[in-house]
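Form 7-S
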Amino acid sequence: MQVTQVAAEGLVRQFKVVVPAAEIEDRVTSRLEDLKSRVRMPGFRPGKVPLGLLRKQYGKGVLGEVVEQAVEEGTKKAIGEHGLKPALRPEIEITAFDEGKDLEFAMRVELLPEVPEVDMKAIAIVRPVAEVDETVRREALERIARSRQKFQPPAEPRPARAGDRVTIDYAGTVNGEPFEGGTGKDLAVVLGAGGTIPGFEDQLLGAVPGERRVIEVTFPETWGEASLRGKPARFEVEVKAVEEPLPVTVDDALAKELGFDDLAALEKAVAERIEADFKAASRLKAKRQLLDHLAATYRFEVPAGMVDIEFRAIWEQVEREMKERGLTFEAEGKTEEEMKAEYRAIAERRVRLGLILSDIGTRHGIKVEGSELQQAVIAQAQRFPGQERQVFEYYRNNAAALEALRAPIFEDKVVDFILQLAQVTEKKVSPQELMRGDEEEPAGGESAAASASTAAS
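Output:
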């Protein structure tokens, strides 16, 4: 078997592999000889079937197996002899072969790049933190109480005003035609809460039980159902009840309604939840800073094949979301080519970050323990009550799905490791600033977990 490198450009290596016809024939003969002891044919004792007869009956199948094995061995030899680290499975093309002649095939392999070592101690991160003070706790409790707002009819009948709950039956049309979801009964609308089409609640102000009204609104361009966006609609409404809100109280009764012993227990649970949310938000912002730093500081060529895979996954999600929301490229103000270029840049960033995180994890022996993976599977199973067994079976028999759980765990462990060594300075901010969402990266956000996992495996 002769392996010759014929091209080397960037991260791509190309080889020509030749397996002599004599070697192929020896392998076929050896395989047929092995079959003699196991094949039974009428008229022949076990092990006495003529080789020519075996070749006639099984030769093509055996030849196919031999060629496949030779290609695999040739590929491994090229990789081993040249000390290569493939980024993806090599591409193979058989360029010449016929029975009794040499087997020749071309091999193209894309390599993992040399990732520069990251100076983690030189990384400076400003980690925002916020205090869970009395104001934050009180506002949270009041939001909980308002979410369970109770209403009752006013002592004396009166027209509806802001804050009231109005119960209605309604029938809507667009261009004179009914539309799906446009008709309903006993809909409770809190006036001023903004839970309906803009302008709808305003036209219920002053209504009294038993009154019929015609409400005309225009669906906003952001409406969930694409076919209704920007279209005027007409609703015939019957007002069935007008109720006023009762005072919102944060007390033991509210706590017991929520399953707690008393208000103190509810306050403690709310404070713990807020603290956990603040810690998660703080870590997420620190992680984003870290990934931004790594992506901007460490630039190197990344395997185009890995970028292609990441881009396809992102673009499939983009197309699916656009279809579900009824969006078009024109509505987004960009051409398809412009959007693809943007998402390809995102894919390249993710791959680069994945390679960096993978390299750091490998250098420092960071691994996902079996117990950590097991906890992740258990967490998934808990999401589907009554189907836990099926979930466990799914992950037991699906390596790709299990890897999808392993990847983000690995990423988080590497990120936490870096943050322990980096220069992290805490900066006190308001709860509003801490919880304010940064501009989201389209199509799945920032995570480099999938790419990191691919590179690490």
